[in-house]
Amino acid sequence: MTTTRAHSFNAAAAQYAANRPSYPPLLLETLEELAGRPLRNAQVADVGAGTGIATSLLHARGAKVTAVEPGDGMAAEFRRNNPGIPLVRGDGNHLPLATASADFITYAQAWHWTDPAKAGPEARRVLREGGALALWWNMSDNSQEWAAAQDARLRDFFQHDSFRPASGEGKQRGGHPWTDVPGLDFTEREIPHTRKVPLVTHLANLGSHSAFLVLGEERTREFMKREHEVLSERFPDGTVEECYVVHVRLALN
Ligand SMILES: C[S@@+](CC[C@H](N)C(=O)[O-])C[C@H]1O[C@@H](n2cnc3c(N)ncnc32)[C@H](O)[C@@H]1O
After folding, report:
1. Measuring from atom 26 of ligand 1, which residue has the nearest CA?
2. CATH for 22
3. How far are the Cα atoms of 44, 46, 69, 99 from residue 126, in angstroms, in the given order?
């Protein structure tokens, strides 16, 4: 099931690219602060790069970034959006990268799709000594009453099955996504950010999550129709303010 979900993004890559939120500038500053070095001219491998949302930010900051992506559909969308950034096909469990070649390895909402028993040692192999492994997730900020209510509707709809794998699938330890890597000592930060989007974009963003992608169109439409009704009452001008907290974990090799 995890494998099916991990590959579900490929059929919806354009929807993903058009509707998912990006990450705030403070995230890049935080990576530099925790790593103790700038991203400019750093060799960065962005693994599980998807359509390139994080990769393009790292590139714009001056990093020499290589994207690593296993999925056909996501890789094709990446190449359409980022023709100037190198992408290699592969996954985090077997990185197609040379030993001791990276200053940073980044996983933006992708670490939970790996087998950490393999991806951890692989990251340590590819990182230079002192290089940084950085993992982050954009999580909905449920201190917002409407977001908590939506989360409850999602949990109810999916029968308490995990909607957001980064926070579910038994991969939690001490309330955090499962990110323990033997030999690495992670520092954590939380970075809030918001964006205002049309309601249709918000719903398309929701629909680009793997739980809906494996559910099928009919049941997805059923949920979205009800959600459209509920949110139209909450946001009568048709603009939704999505609130996120980026949960970042970074460790030096
Ligand atoms: C939620 S998307 C994140 C994409 C992008 N990093 C972003 O921030 O938008 C997860 C990505 O992880 C990829 N993926 C799935 N299994 C993986 C694995 N074992 N190692 C690395 N990436 C994987 C998927 O193909 C997908 O592109």
Report:
1. 50
2. 3.40.50.150
3. 10, 12, 16, 4
